[in-house]
Amino acid sequence: MPLIYQLASIGLLLSLISHVAQSGSPDSQQLSSQCQACSAIAAAFQRGLERTARDNFGGGNTNWEETRLGTYALSETRLVDITDRLCKDKDNEMNGVTSSECHAMLEKIEEDIEKFWFGAFKANPTSASLRDSVCVNGTAACCAYGRWGPECAPCPDCSGGRGDCNGNGTRTGTGACDCHPGYSGAQCSDCSAKYYRANGESNGECKACSPACRSACTGPLATQCDQCADGYETVQQADGAACVDIDECQTRSPCSGPRSFCENLPGSYRCGDCDRACSACSGPGQAGCTACSPGFEPATTGSGCQDVNECSP
Ligand SMILES: *[C@@H]1O[C@H](CO)[C@@H](O)[C@H](O)[C@H]1NC(C)=O
Ligand SMILES: *[C@@H]1O[C@H](CO)[C@@H](O)[C@H](O)[C@H]1NC(C)=O
């Protein structure tokens, strides 16, 4: 091969490599928003199918029309009725997809939608899925539900809805189970700390322990804690030992300073500043005063202090 051709083919090769390097790792943010836009359109399409399910050709709907144009259900007329409103239907919950993102995606997949309509949908109107045909296979922006990531690998079983597969249905994500509150483990089959297994069944629901428990319990009550949480203490009660809130304000006056008050909270306490109407107080606001600041007097109604009205005689 003459040198000039060798150089030219090396140049072509290099430009191919750099092109592949640039487009080989598409921005995952961009992929996920494309999938989101396509999925939103597919969901709107589904609603459009439901909206037009009982429609027919406007006007006559005579046998002649049905025969000449085919039934409305599979007609181009219905397709247009649906696609016209995909991005502008006010009822459509576009799921964070803006109108311009929707239109940009629709332009890209319009032909695919038409192919879907006269192909997969016509062949099987009840089970054909626009999302599968167009968003998954067509633009390659999505994976089928139950798959995730660049290779559309299968999602793990997240214990039947106790967690969500990260990246489910998209070309992004980690493929790990994001467990719902109360569940943990790779497949969300364990109970988290501070949750217990209800019904005693090995795969029963996980429910929250009493806030009085430190980390584990056998049931929902404060008598069912393994150990008491900070700010609670074990107290023998008629029905057994229970974890009971410690009233820190009583046991150890933790709020110092003449113009502060202590408020007991479940498991803790809070120090607050007295209202300016108070020179001493036991709670918030003017009503919490136990002694009044200069310029204030004991309230005539209720408790606390009120402003002295120096103007009235
Ligand atoms: C998507 O593409 C795969 C592989 O070509 C094919 O087997 C599958 O039937 C397609 N699915 C849809 C819904 O078009
Ligand atoms: C994936 O998403 C689909 C559709 O929202 C849902 O039905 C399915 O349970 C999800 N799978 C996992 C493992 O999260």
Automatic annotation (TrEMBL):
Could you list this entry's UniProt keywords, alphabetically sorted.
Disulfide bond, EGF-like domain, Signal
Query: Highest taxon of the source?
Result: Eukaryota
Q: Which GO terms describe its molecular function?
A: calcium ion binding
Q: Does the keyword Transferase apply?
A: no
Coiled coil stretches, renumbered:
none
Please give the Gene3D superfamilies that the UniProt record associates with this protein: Laminin
Signal peptide positions (record): 1-23
Signal among the record's keywords?
yes
Domain named Laminin EGF-like is located at 177-209
Q: Which InterPro entries match?
A: EGF, EGF_Ca-bd_CS, Furin_repeat, Growth_fac_rcpt_cys_sf, LE_dom
Which residue numbers delimit the EGF-like domain?
A: 177-188
Q: PROSITE patterns of this UniProt entry?
A: EGF_1, EGF_CA, EGF_LAM_1
Q: What is the name of the protein in this document? A: Laminin EGF-like domain-containing protein
